[in-house]
């Protein structure tokens, strides 16, 4: 029997970086994070993507994944922590690490990876209601179209990111 060459290892790198405070100083200020994804996995439409998401959107994503994953355990998110002891920067950094660990575990789970909400969360800048509409077929684009549309609009950015040492 002929042995086929081993399939290349599928790798997905996901990084949560660059926390930014939006609407600083106002009552509705929040922090969002840059999610950078680089992969050779066939599971993903775009091989590189970058979006900004806030904690509340992660909470939504986790809830959706849980609903659809059945008995598959969904990784935990870092806590909401209303009274945090220490500096805000320290809190933001701890949360950033927690969000990154959450996503790293999620993208390694085949069941969770099959949820199109995850893909739209990671690879489009659609809002949560728009993701829901898209997944239910009520949006103007399919899930793949939405991701490709975003990937196209982001081309320059992705190259710029890759050319950094």
TrEMBL record:
This is SNX11 protein. GO terms for biological process: intracellular protein transport; vesicle organization. It comes from the Eukaryota. Keywords: Cytoplasm, Endosome, Lipid-binding, Membrane, Protein transport, Transport. GO terms for molecular function: phosphatidylinositol phosphate binding. It is found in: Cytoplasm; Endomembrane system; Endosome. It is a peripheral membrane protein. One of its GO terms (cellular component) is endosome. Belongs to the sorting nexin family. Pfam families: PX. Its main location: cytoplasm. InterPro entries: PX_dom (IPR001683), PX_dom_sf (IPR036871), SNX10/11 (IPR043544). Residues 11-128 form the PX domain.
């Amino acid at each position: 029997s002929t042995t086929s060459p081993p399939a290349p290892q599928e790798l997905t790198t996901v990084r949560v970086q660059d926390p930014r405070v939006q609407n600083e100083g106002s009552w509705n200020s929040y922090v969002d994070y840059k999610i950078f994804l680089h992969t050779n996995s066939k599971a993903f439409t775009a091989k590189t993507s970058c979006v900004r998401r806030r904690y509340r959107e992660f909470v939504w994503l986790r809830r959706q994944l849980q609903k659809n994953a059945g008995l598959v355990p969904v990784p935990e998110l870092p806590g909401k922590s209303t009274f945090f002891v220490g500096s805000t920067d320290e809190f933001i950094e701890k949360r950033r690490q927690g969000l990154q660990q959450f996503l790293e575990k999620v993208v390694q789970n085949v069941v969770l990876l099959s949820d199109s909400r995850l893909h739209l969360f990671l690879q489009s800048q659609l809002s949560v209601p728009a993701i829901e509409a898209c997944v239910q077929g009520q949006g103007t684009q399919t899930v793949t179209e939405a991701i490709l549309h975003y990937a196209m609009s982001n081309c320059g950015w992705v190259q710029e990111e890759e050319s950094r040492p």
